[in-house]
Design goal:
The protein is mainly α. It has one domain: Orthogonal Bundle (434 Repressor (Amino-terminal Domain)), CATH 1.10.260.40. Helices cover about 60% and strands about 0% of the residues. It has four helices and no strands. α1 packs across α3 and α2 packs across α4. The longest helix is centred in the first third of the chain and has 24 residues. It is globular and about 35 Å long. The mean pLDDT is about 90.
């Protein structure tokens, strides 16, 4: 069971890194993004740090502001992020 937890943590870290890269590419600070997305700076810090349990509604708000989307497709249950991000 611990391996599954490590996998979730690793995927969360990859997602967080992609969100951080996009935020920086748009020249936004965490405070600016938080204001635009209607969430707290602490939430963004945890999201970008790879916290594996975050509120999906807030994640979706952040992605919307960054011009990103969450897409589901058939696969092996992993996380796939475009190389450009």
């Amino acid at each position: 069971m611990e391996k599954e937890g490590q996998k979730r943590a690793s995927q969360a870290a990859v997602l967080g890194q992609a969100i951080r890269r996009q935020r920086r590419a748009l020249s936004l600070t965490q405070a600016q993004l938080a204001q635009l997305a209607g969430c707290g700076v602490a939430f963004l810090y945890l999201l970008e740090s790879g916290k594996p349990s975050v509120r999906l509604d807030k994640v979706m708000d952040v992605l919307r502001v960054l011009g990103l989307q969450l897409r589901l497709e058939r696969g092996r249950g992993g996380l796939v992020i475009e190389e450009a991000l």
